[in-house]
Specification:
The complex is a heterodimer of chains A (288) and B (287). Chain A contains 11 helices and 10 strands. By secondary structure, chain A is of the alpha/beta class. Chain A has a single domain, classed as Rossmann fold. In chain A, the strands form 2 sheets. Chain A has a 6-stranded mixed beta sheet with strand order 6-7-8-3-9-10, with helices on both faces. In chain A, strands 2-1-4-5 form a 4-stranded antiparallel beta sheet, covered by helices on one side. In chain A, helix 6 links the parallel strand 7 and strand 8. In chain A, helix 3 packs across helix 4, helix 3 packs parallel to helix 5 and helix 4 packs across helix 5. In chain A, 47% of the residues are buried. The mean pLDDT of chain A is 91. By secondary structure, chain B is an alpha/beta fold. Chain B has 3 domains: 144 residues, Rossmann fold (3-Layer(aba) Sandwich); 66 residues, no CATH class; 41 residues, no CATH class. Chain B has 11 helices and 10 strands. A 6-stranded mixed beta sheet of chain B has the order 6-7-8-3-9-10, with helices on both faces. A 4-stranded antiparallel beta sheet of chain B has the order 2-1-4-5, with helices on one face. The longest helix of chain B has 18 residues. Chain B is globular and about 65 Å long. The chains are: A alpha/beta (288), B alpha/beta (287). Chains A and B meet through helix 5, helix 6, helix 10 and helix 11 of A and helix 6, helix 10 and helix 11 of B. Bound molecules: adenosine-5'-diphosphate (2 copies) and magnesium ion (2 copies). The site of one magnesium ion has 4 residues of chain B, from helix 1.
């Protein structure tokens, strides 16, 4: 672990409490993850693979059964550090309904920074900026519970953005969104990361979102099975398949064509890359 | 033959308050017997509001709903009957499971229909088989199942009512890729085996393309487009304007076509795409 490490999981195992005498199986099995400042990391994995458990451990909502979670070197089991940890890592949880606390959108977004004791003028600015970034500024006086799922999700994201934590963990923020909503959230996240240097951890089921990350971690049944750049990770179709996932559409198509003898290069991930490779492949034939 | 018809249908929420919203406005559409219809639209376009009219959960502010030619809101009885003839599976239905066993949860719908115990049992078992719920799971608590399994139990509960029309609001939302595929397969299989009419609400263009016969696009509470999958996806720019999209694969083909490659652009899955490219290369598109 060096100075640049923001989140560090050291041999972390976690088990949920059982209602009966038989203990539940481990939800996380001895996992090691280091996330560096400024990274944009996507976490993929089948339903139940342990992704949300990682999110909860990152912000001291739950503690490891064994092993350690450090946030900028702060041990999450130390209760005195809870406030500092939550000011460093903000989490947008899966179901936005559970996160809405106020009756007006802008009050809801102001809730986090108010709890951090930030002065009103600064809060005003942060709330407006955050709502604009997620495209919800026009709804600032609306009642959150009457918004659509996607709109609620964006309000929840604005709430965490307004806290200006160094790191934001988002648990499937785009699951309920339409294509435009998904793109808006992705763009907001990328801007936060590139322009403000905020570390982003994005939990998602969408492969095309993972392709845009710097790094992809794949979970399978409580274990980390892949960890690398999108190109490294998606060059392992067997592990991806075993983990219940699939390749990005362009990669899948390129693979299938290669199996049928079409000479396309390895490592195609995006539509742009596919188009370029296809044109090259076809023109290569012409020049013969 | 038309099963369901919406005629000049409008609905407003919170009438008479400062928050009055027109959710859908003057909608006209028909659903044909046995078809798989997809309703797509941006979030807030009115999809969930619309489908809750089809089984009389909502009463229109204006307009009518006809089921087999009869206005479903004509009487209390007809509205009640529509609850069972049109089965509605809500978004994230697994949050509505509440019985102590999977069996009881699936049986809940049919047991309100005045059927014999033997008939209820037969229906529960048929629906469980359709959704891939094994016999040994029936006596488990639904809370001990995985997310994908819970979703299938909730779907089985609606299928067990054996409705004439099955409506599913975002049935694959939030599932991992394998879970999505499983759900879509079972819906296709259900339709093919029973010949029932199925309406699927979705904003995943990939999912819609893989199952639907016909698509209706809602935009801001009105019907903006409707037609076959090919027809609707040929309006790519308009779809994007409405907050939607076309499948990624289709975009690749549209792009290649623009660059002068003579490819068929009615391609929505990587399987179709592979076949089309192989065809193109074989007929001398040279490679
Ligand atoms: N509150 C809980 N009580 C008991 N088991 C749980 C609870 N939350 C999650 N689990 C179990 O822990 C495992 C990991 O869950 P989770 O981290 O939510 O997975 P994911 O977010 O990848 O879908 C799963 O087997 C799940 O069923
Ligand atoms: N309970 C409600 N009260 C007030 N407005 C609502 C309610 N539910 C939905 N709306 C509004 O009605 C419109 C259509 O919503 P909905 O039918 O849920 O759309 P979709 O299912 O396409 O996302 C939206 O503007 C939404 O904000
Ligand atoms: Mg989760
Ligand atoms: Mg809806």
């Amino acid at each position: 672990m060096n100075d640049n490490t923001l989140i560090s999981f050291r041999d972390v195992s976690y088990r949920y409490e059982s209602d009966t005498d038989t203990p539940l199986p481990l939800a996380l099995k001895n996992i090691n993850i280091d996330i560096k400042k400024g990274e944009f990391v996507a976490i993929l994995g089948h339903n139940g693979s342990g992704k949300s458990t990682i999110a909860k451990l990152s912000n001291a909502i739950i503690m490891p059964e064994s092993g350690k979670v450090y946030i900028k070197g702060m041990d999450t089991v130390d209760e005195k550090l809870e406030y500092d940890i939550r000011q460093t890592v903000g989490v947008v949880f899966q179901n936005p309904d559970n996160q809405i606390v106020a009756t007006i959108v802008e009050e809801d977004v102001a809730f986090g920074p108010e709890n951090l004791g930030i002065e009103p003028k600064e809060i005003r600015k942060r709330v407006d900026d955050a709502l604009k970034s997620v495209g919800m500024y026009d709804y600032r006086f609306h009642q959150p519970h009457k918004l659509s799922g996607g709109q609620k999700q964006r309000v929840a994201i604005a709430g965490i953005m307004a806290m200006q934590t160094e790191c934001i963990v988002l648990d499937e923020p785009t699951a309920m969104l339409d294509p435009k909503g998904r793109e808006e959230v992705m763009t907001a996240m990328q801007r936060l990361n590139k322009e403000l240097g905020i570390t982003v951890v994005l939990i998602t089921h969408y492969m095309d979102e993972a392709v845009k990350a710097d790094r992809v971690i794949v979970m399978d049944s409580g274990e980390v099975v892949l960890d690398g750049t999108p190109r490294e990770v998606f060059s392992q179709p067997d592990i991806i398949e075993h983990a219940g996932l699939e390749l990005p559409e362009s990669a899948k198509l390129a693979n299938e064509l290669r199996k049928n003898g079409v000479e396309l290069p390895e490592g195609i991930l995006t539509p742009e890359e596919f188009i370029e490779a296809f044109k090259f492949c076809v023109s290569g034939g012409n020049e013969k | 033959m038309t099963v369901l018809e919406a005629k000049n249908l409008s609905y407003e929420y919170s009438v008479g308050t400062p928050f009055q919203v027109t959710a859908i406005k003057n909608i006209n559409l028909t659903v044909e017997k046995g078809e798989m219809l997809a309703i797509i639209g941006h979030t807030g376009s009115g999809k969930s509001t619309l489908i809750q009219h089809f089984n009389a959960l909502f009463q229109p502010t204006e307009g009518q709903i006809f089921l087999n030619g009869k206005d479903i809101n004509e009487s209390k009885e007809s509205a009640h009957a529509a609850r069972f003839k049109v089965g509605l599976c809500f978004q994230y239905p697994e949050y509505q499971l509440f019985e102590s066993t999977v069996y009881k949860d699936i049986a809940f719908g049919p047991s309100n229909m005045g059927l014999s115990d033997a008939e209820i049992d037969a229906r529960v078992r048929r629906a469980a088989a359709f959704t891939g719920i094994r016999d040994d799971m029936l006596e488990k608590s639904p809370f001990d199942l995985s997310g994908g399994e819970k979703r299938r139990v909730a779907i089985a509960g609606v299928m067990a009512m054996e409705p004439e029309v099955l409506i599913m609001d975002e049935p694959a939302a939030g599932l991992d890729p394998r879970g999505r595929k499983t759900i879509l397969e079972l819906i296709k299989n259900y339709r093919e085996t029973t010949g029932s009419t199925v309406i699927i609400v979705s904003h995943s263009m990939e999912d819609v393309a893989s199952v639907a016969d016909r698509i209706v696009v809602l935009n801001k509470g009105t019907v903006a487009l409707s037609g076959s999958v090919d027809e609707v996806f040929s309006h790519a720019d308009e779809l994007v304007e409405m907050g939607l999209n076309i499948p990624q694969i289709t975009k690749i083909f549209a792009e290649l076509k623009k660059s002068g490659y003579d490819l068929n652009t009615s391609v929505y899955t990587s399987e179709q795409a592979k076949n089309e490219i192989l065809r193109y290369l074989q007929k001398g598109g040279n490679a």
